[in-house]
Design brief:
The complex is a heterodimer of chains A (about 110) and B (about 110). With about 110 residues, chain A is mainly beta. Chain A has strands at about 5, 10-15, 20-25, 30-35, 45-50, 55, 70, 75-80, 90-95, 100-105, 110. Classes of the chains: A mainly beta (about 110), B mainly beta (about 110).
C-alpha cells in the first residue's frame, strides 16, 4: 500500500493567479498521476508524471496550463496556472500498481473567484 | 475504446434497504475491476476489487462479482446504513494499465 499526503487540502484563489499542489508518497513509485474531478463529475486524468522525464498530458490538458514537476520518486507538484472559475475542481494525485488498486491523496478542493 | 458505465444517481434508499449499483464495462482482454468510494469531504479509497472472472470482491458488507459473460461488476449490499452515504465509482485497469473510471453514483441513505 501507499500513503499519500497532498496539500493544500483546499484553497480559494483569485482569477489570474496560480496554485501549486504538492503530493508526497511514503514509498518510491515510478509513476504518479494527477486527476481533476469537477463538481458532480467523474475523475479525468490530467497527466502522468514519471521521475526524470517530461510529464505526459492527456487530450485537452497542456503543460503551460498545468505544469508538473517530478524531482524524485516520492514527490510531485501540479501547478494550476492563470486560473479562471472554470478551474474550480478537486485535484487528486494518485499512484497505481499494475492490475492493483490505486491510492489517492485526500485531494485539493480549489475554488477560483 | 475501453469504458465503464454505471447507473446514474443519486440513488436514495432508506436505512436497511438492499442496494444494487449497476456497473458494466467494455474492454479487451481481462481487466481488473474495482469499486472506489468517496465519502463526503474525503478522498477516494478502494472499496473492493476483483482481478479475474467469477472472482467476488467484498468489504464492509459490500460485494461485487466479476461477470465476464455479462461484462458486469454490480455492487450490492444487503442492508445499507446512513454511514454508507457516499459517491461510488466503478473502474477498471485495462491491458495498457490505464485506469478507466465510471461517472460515479451518489448514494443517499435516509434514516
Amino acid at each position: 500500500s501507499a500513503v499519500i499526503s497532498q496539500k493544500p487540502s483546499r484553497d480559494i484563489c483569485q482569477r489570474g493567479t496560480s496554485l501549486t499542489i504538492q503530493c508526497q508518497v511514503d514509498s518510491q513509485v515510478t509513476m504518479m498521476f494527477w486527476y481533476r474531478q469537477q463538481p458532480g463529475q467523474s475523475l479525468t486524468l490530467i497527466a502522468t508524471a514519471n521521475q526524470g522525464s517530461e510529464a505526459t498530458y492527456e487530450s485537452g490538458f497542456v503543460i503551460d496550463k498545468f505544469p508538473i514537476s517530478r524531482p524524485n520518486l516520492t514527490f510531485s507538484t501540479l501547478t494550476v496556472s492563470n486560473m479562471s472559475p472554470e478551474d474550480s475542481s478537486i485535484y487528486l494525485c494518485s499512484v497505481e500498481g499494475v492490475g492493483t488498486e490505486a491510492f489517492f491523496g485526500q485531494g485539493t478542493r480549489l475554488t477560483v473567484v | 475504446g475501453d469504458s465503464v458505465t454505471q447507473m446514474e444517481g443519486p440513488v436514495t434508499l432508506s436505512e436497511e434497504a438492499f442496494l444494487t449499483i449497476n456497473c458494466t464495462y467494455t474492454a479487451t482482454g481481462y481487466p481488473s475491476l474495482f469499486w472506489y468510494v468517496q465519502y463526503p469531504g474525503e478522498g477516494l479509497q478502494l472499496l473492493l476489487k476483483a482481478t479475474k472472472a467469477d472472482d467476488k470482491g467484498s468489504n464492509k458488507g459490500f460485494e461485487a462479482t466479476y461477470r465476464k459473460e455479462t461484462t458486469s461488476f454490480h455492487l450490492e449490499k444487503g442492508s445499507v446504513q446512513v454511514s454508507d452515504s457516499a459517491v461510488y465509482f466503478c473502474a477498471l485497469t485495462n491491458s495498457n494499465y490505464q485506469l478507466i473510471w465510471g461517472a460515479g453514483t451518489k448514494l443517499i441513505i435516509k434514516p
